[in-house]
Amino acid sequence: MRPKLLPLSETMHLIMLALKKPLHGYAIMQHVSEMSGGQVNIAAGTLYGALDNLKKNQYIELISDPAERKKVYQVTTLGEEILELENIRLKKFISLYESEDGSNE
Amino acid sequence: MNKYKFFIDPLKEEQWINQMQKKSYRLTDISLDFIYKFEKTAEDYVTQVDYQEYMNKSRYEEYISIHEEFGWEHIRGGRFGSMTQVWSKIPDGNDELFSDRESKINYYKRYMEMTSTFAILFLVYSMLFLPDGPGMIFLTPGLWEMQGMEFWRAFLFELPFALMRTLPAILFPIVTVMFFVAYYRMNKAKKELELEN
What we know:
The structure holds 2 protein chains of 2 kinds. Chain A has a 3-stranded antiparallel beta sheet with strand order 1-3-2. Chain A has a single domain (10-103), classed as Winged helix-like DNA-binding domain superfamily/Winged helix DNA-binding domain (Arc Repressor Mutant, subunit A, Orthogonal Bundle). In chain A, helix 1 (10-18) crosses helix 2. Helices cover 57% and strands 9% of the residues of chain A. Chain A starts with 9 loop residues before the first helix and ends with a helix. Chain A is mostly helical. Chain B has a 3-stranded antiparallel beta sheet, covered by helices on one side. Chain B has a 3-stranded antiparallel beta sheet with strand order 4-6-5, with helices on both faces. Chain B has helices at residues 10-22, 57-69, 101-128, 134-137, 148-195; strands at residues 2-4, 25-31, 35-40, 46-50, 73-76, 85-89. Chain B is of the alpha+beta class. In chain B, helix 3 packs antiparallel against helix 5 (148-195).
């Protein structure tokens, strides 16, 4: 059976990629916006929901001190494995696309 | 300036607050669910209403912190799921709480869970307060056998009490229906969103 949340939604995918490095809420949004060339601008509620969901599945963790006002998150080892699975899946897709292109030649 | 309003439907609440804020007021506080405090302002403000179920302390802190990082000010709310979360900010281009369809649909689902819970609760109240007949409303013994002045004096004396006894029986079904209407509206908004692609 596939691990939960897979295949990752665009929002979750970008958030997890951004969280390879530790980041707080607003910085996650900025990174995601940059990575998507300004296409994906995550709103606060969507970000909270996605982080909560990813955290529940232990793909990311809260690493800042509870007393700290700004909450900092980072991908866990499990999260890295999930990203690796997604990487393999997407590479397969790309090869499907490219072989189809190639067959016309 | 205080405005007294009571909303069953959080979508209507949000709409009304934003209409008030177009008239150069800003919402500063909501007390007891019906006292909306506004103050004059030269700035534009946008308000969005969210609903969250019970959150433990650390989840609630994350919820607040993330929204504040985006410039939202928490006007009203709590972590026990007993009321809506009201957020305001000065518009900066990222002025919605939800940016993808999935999270917006989840938000309607949370609302619908809340309204259906309240609808059922009030339906039960309605049935509890249902009077069995006029004998349950006017309790003066032998009232309906009295004649003339004696009847009117006893009747008018008890009328306010009788009304108070009937009030829940009238009010609860009305509120129940309003919750069901709000539920229906949200379900419609959710369906429209699901079809849109």
